Amino acid sequence: MNDSQTLLDRMAEAIRADHPDGPPKPFQVIGIRTGGVWVAEALAARLGHTAPIGSLDIAFYRDDFSRIGLHPEVRPSHIPFPVEDAHILLVDDVLHTGRTVRAALNEIFDYGRPASIRLAVLIDRGGRELPICAQYSGERLELPEYEEVLVSGPEPLTWQIVQREVRA
To answer: How far, rounded to the nearest angstrom, does the alpha carbon of residue 110 sit from its chain's CA centroid?
Structure first.
Protein backbone atom coordinates (compact mmCIF):
# COMPACT_ATOMS: atom_id res chain seq x y z
CA MET A 1 0.00 0.00 0.00
CA ASN A 2 1.13 3.48 -0.80
CA ASP A 3 0.53 6.54 1.31
CA SER A 4 -1.12 9.35 -0.63
CA GLN A 5 0.08 12.29 1.47
CA THR A 6 3.09 13.04 -0.76
CA LEU A 7 0.92 12.88 -3.87
CA LEU A 8 -1.64 15.26 -2.35
CA ASP A 9 1.15 17.67 -1.39
CA ARG A 10 2.48 17.50 -4.96
CA MET A 11 -0.97 18.29 -6.38
CA ALA A 12 -1.50 21.21 -4.00
CA GLU A 13 1.92 22.66 -4.89
CA ALA A 14 1.16 22.41 -8.62
CA ILE A 15 -2.15 24.22 -8.13
CA ARG A 16 -0.45 26.93 -6.05
CA ALA A 17 2.29 27.28 -8.70
CA ASP A 18 -0.38 28.00 -11.32
CA HIS A 19 -1.80 30.72 -9.05
CA PRO A 20 1.06 32.22 -7.00
CA ASP A 21 -1.15 35.10 -5.83
CA GLY A 22 -4.10 32.82 -5.18
CA PRO A 23 -6.75 31.83 -7.71
CA PRO A 24 -7.74 34.74 -9.98
CA LYS A 25 -11.37 34.10 -9.09
CA PRO A 26 -12.92 31.94 -6.40
CA PHE A 27 -13.05 28.31 -7.44
CA GLN A 28 -15.33 25.49 -6.42
CA VAL A 29 -14.26 21.89 -5.79
CA ILE A 30 -16.24 18.86 -6.96
CA GLY A 31 -15.18 15.27 -6.25
CA ILE A 32 -16.32 12.22 -8.19
CA ARG A 33 -17.66 9.53 -5.84
CA THR A 34 -16.24 7.81 -4.00
CA GLY A 35 -12.47 8.10 -4.15
CA GLY A 36 -12.55 11.47 -5.88
CA VAL A 37 -14.52 12.95 -2.99
CA TRP A 38 -11.90 11.66 -0.53
CA VAL A 39 -9.11 13.20 -2.64
CA ALA A 40 -11.08 16.45 -3.07
CA GLU A 41 -11.56 16.84 0.69
CA ALA A 42 -7.87 16.22 1.43
CA LEU A 43 -6.74 18.51 -1.40
CA ALA A 44 -9.13 21.30 -0.39
CA ALA A 45 -7.77 21.15 3.16
CA ARG A 46 -4.20 21.53 1.86
CA LEU A 47 -5.24 24.51 -0.26
CA GLY A 48 -7.09 26.21 2.61
CA HIS A 49 -10.32 25.97 0.61
CA THR A 50 -13.18 26.31 3.09
CA ALA A 51 -16.23 26.44 0.80
CA PRO A 52 -18.47 23.36 0.66
CA ILE A 53 -17.31 20.60 -1.69
CA GLY A 54 -19.60 19.12 -4.31
CA SER A 55 -19.90 15.42 -5.03
CA LEU A 56 -20.96 13.65 -8.21
CA ASP A 57 -22.27 10.13 -8.64
CA ILE A 58 -21.93 9.67 -12.39
CA ALA A 59 -23.52 6.19 -12.60
CA PHE A 60 -26.38 7.30 -14.87
CA TYR A 61 -24.06 9.36 -17.09
CA ARG A 62 -21.64 6.57 -18.04
CA ASP A 63 -21.54 5.55 -21.70
CA ASP A 64 -20.64 1.96 -20.75
CA PHE A 65 -23.64 1.51 -18.43
CA SER A 66 -25.08 -1.35 -20.52
CA ARG A 67 -21.75 -3.21 -20.48
CA ILE A 68 -20.72 -2.81 -16.81
CA GLY A 69 -24.14 -2.46 -15.20
CA LEU A 70 -25.30 -0.13 -12.46
CA HIS A 71 -23.20 0.18 -9.33
CA PRO A 72 -25.24 -1.20 -6.40
CA GLU A 73 -24.87 1.96 -4.31
CA VAL A 74 -25.94 4.84 -6.54
CA ARG A 75 -26.31 8.00 -4.47
CA PRO A 76 -27.54 11.44 -5.52
CA SER A 77 -25.04 14.05 -6.58
CA HIS A 78 -24.75 17.15 -4.43
CA ILE A 79 -23.56 20.51 -5.76
CA PRO A 80 -23.95 23.09 -2.94
CA PHE A 81 -23.13 26.12 -5.12
CA PRO A 82 -24.20 27.59 -8.46
CA VAL A 83 -22.28 26.03 -11.37
CA GLU A 84 -23.11 28.82 -13.80
CA ASP A 85 -19.92 30.87 -14.47
CA ALA A 86 -18.04 29.06 -11.68
CA HIS A 87 -14.37 28.06 -11.91
CA ILE A 88 -14.39 24.38 -10.98
CA LEU A 89 -11.66 22.04 -9.83
CA LEU A 90 -12.96 18.56 -10.69
CA VAL A 91 -11.21 15.86 -8.64
CA ASP A 92 -11.00 12.09 -9.08
CA ASP A 93 -8.84 9.36 -7.60
CA VAL A 94 -7.66 7.54 -10.75
CA LEU A 95 -7.72 8.67 -14.38
CA HIS A 96 -7.66 5.77 -16.83
CA THR A 97 -9.85 5.66 -19.95
CA GLY A 98 -11.37 9.13 -19.48
CA ARG A 99 -14.94 7.83 -19.49
CA THR A 100 -15.62 8.68 -15.84
CA VAL A 101 -14.44 12.26 -16.37
CA ARG A 102 -16.52 12.57 -19.55
CA ALA A 103 -19.58 11.44 -17.59
CA ALA A 104 -18.78 13.93 -14.81
CA LEU A 105 -18.48 16.77 -17.33
CA ASN A 106 -21.87 15.86 -18.81
CA GLU A 107 -23.45 15.92 -15.37
CA ILE A 108 -21.81 19.23 -14.41
CA PHE A 109 -23.22 20.86 -17.55
CA ASP A 110 -26.70 19.68 -16.55
CA TYR A 111 -26.30 22.02 -13.54
CA GLY A 112 -25.17 24.99 -15.62
CA ARG A 113 -22.31 26.34 -17.75
CA PRO A 114 -19.13 26.80 -15.72
CA ALA A 115 -16.54 29.42 -16.68
CA SER A 116 -13.78 26.78 -16.52
CA ILE A 117 -13.08 23.25 -15.33
CA ARG A 118 -9.64 21.94 -14.38
CA LEU A 119 -9.03 18.28 -13.58
CA ALA A 120 -6.97 16.99 -10.65
CA VAL A 121 -6.34 13.26 -10.09
CA LEU A 122 -4.37 11.40 -7.48
CA ILE A 123 -3.11 8.83 -10.02
CA ASP A 124 -2.99 9.14 -13.82
CA ARG A 125 -2.50 5.54 -14.96
CA GLY A 126 -2.59 6.12 -18.72
CA GLY A 127 -4.64 4.04 -21.16
CA ARG A 128 -6.92 6.80 -22.46
CA GLU A 129 -9.84 5.96 -24.73
CA LEU A 130 -11.03 9.59 -24.85
CA PRO A 131 -9.03 12.83 -25.23
CA ILE A 132 -9.11 13.74 -21.52
CA CYS A 133 -6.08 14.98 -19.59
CA ALA A 134 -5.50 16.09 -16.02
CA GLN A 135 -3.96 19.48 -15.34
CA TYR A 136 -2.82 18.21 -11.93
CA SER A 137 -1.84 14.69 -10.91
CA GLY A 138 -0.04 13.29 -7.91
CA GLU A 139 1.56 10.44 -9.86
CA ARG A 140 1.68 9.33 -13.49
CA LEU A 141 2.01 5.60 -14.13
CA GLU A 142 1.97 3.46 -17.24
CA LEU A 143 0.27 0.22 -16.27
CA PRO A 144 -0.60 -2.78 -18.42
CA GLU A 145 -4.31 -3.49 -18.92
CA TYR A 146 -4.24 -6.39 -16.47
CA GLU A 147 -3.32 -4.07 -13.57
CA GLU A 148 -5.47 -1.45 -11.88
CA VAL A 149 -5.11 1.10 -9.12
CA LEU A 150 -7.34 0.71 -6.07
CA VAL A 151 -7.75 3.69 -3.75
CA SER A 152 -8.92 3.14 -0.16
CA GLY A 153 -9.97 5.76 2.32
CA PRO A 154 -10.84 8.22 3.45
CA GLU A 155 -8.51 7.83 6.47
CA PRO A 156 -5.92 6.83 5.77
CA LEU A 157 -6.08 7.56 2.06
CA THR A 158 -3.96 4.87 0.40
CA TRP A 159 -3.57 3.26 -3.00
CA GLN A 160 -2.19 0.05 -4.42
CA ILE A 161 -1.68 -1.65 -7.77
CA VAL A 162 -3.52 -4.97 -8.10
CA GLN A 163 -4.14 -7.58 -10.77
CA ARG A 164 -7.45 -7.03 -12.54
CA GLU A 165 -10.00 -9.83 -12.36
CA VAL A 166 -10.46 -11.56 -15.69
CA ARG A 167 -14.10 -11.55 -16.78
CA ALA A 168 -15.36 -14.58 -18.66
So the answer is: 18
Dump pLDDT digits (tens) for 94-152.
999 999 999 999 999 999 999 999 999 999 999 999 999 999 999 999 999 899 999 99
Residue-level length of the chain: 168
For 2-163, the fitting CATH number among 3.40.50.2020, 3.90.320.10, 3.30.2130.10, 3.40.50.300 is 3.40.50.2020
What are the CA-CA distances from residue 123 to residues 63, 98, 141 (Å)? 22, 13, 7
Beta-strand ranges (E) seen in the chain are 2-3, 27-32, 54-56, 87-95, 116-124, 136-140, 147-152, 158-163
Cα–Cα–Cα angle for 52, 65, 168, nearest 5°? 125
